[in-house]
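Why does residue order matter? Because the sequence determines the fold. Keep that principle in mind as you read this record.
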Amino acid sequence: MPITYSDLYLDIRRQLKASGIQAATLEARELVCFGCGKTREELFRDGGLYLSREMEEHVRALVRRHLDGEPVAYIIGEWEFYGLPLDINESVLIPRVDTEVLAEAVIASMKPLPSCRVLDLCAGSGCIGLAIAANVPGARVLLGELSEGAIRVCRQNIRRSQLSGRVSVMALNALEEPPAAVGEFDCIVSNPPYIPTGDLEDLDHSVKDFEPRMALDGGSDGYTFYQAIIRRWRKALKPGGRLWFEVGLGQADTVLRLMRTQGFGDLEILPDSQNIPRVVFGRRIEEI
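Structure:
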């Protein structure tokens, strides 16, 4: 029996909700839009129209992939972060809403400056750095990444966001000393790998089996990247420049102490929407 676009969307939303998916409304809409080749506005406009049986089966096949664990962002090849639609594939982590807390804090800090240089280290899709560039007119942003696949995604997103004049990407290893060519920055921001290696197998199937291990594995204790960035990359900050981190559950106090031992002051911790400590930042104020 033929089905309308609205009925298909509502049926898929019920199916996702019954499977325990909290973002069922958003994910049902994205899957139907992608599978039917429609924008959100077109889906709303055409909701009462009937679609072909072939198109319905195509959409339901996408839903089955998702229910088997494949994230929606990888199925449709894009996701939104801080209002920016971005290309996403299996080379990069899917941007999370919690990370918008970090982006928003950096934007608020940098926006009053007439000009500033920002490094997004371990950039992944480039979501944080691009959000900063899009919202801080005086910012020039460098996306630093080691993964070749992630670097390609960064380039795609720079073009997609129409920020080629103020954002560039460079192959950088966060665990090594910064090359002299990068110069100094007013701000370094990083959402580095922070899952302890031994905890990776306990992650949800949709994360451990689809998202890149390189972007998740934070070493034996989860602090390998924090330690390296704090110790090695502080020299790439101008005196008074700020270092910003996203941190995992229970990591904020340790990261703050690591920063203090390496000459950072004015240290603060910010919570996410669930009141979980999510962001740690401080200012380079001492010479070591």
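The chain has eleven helices and eleven strands.
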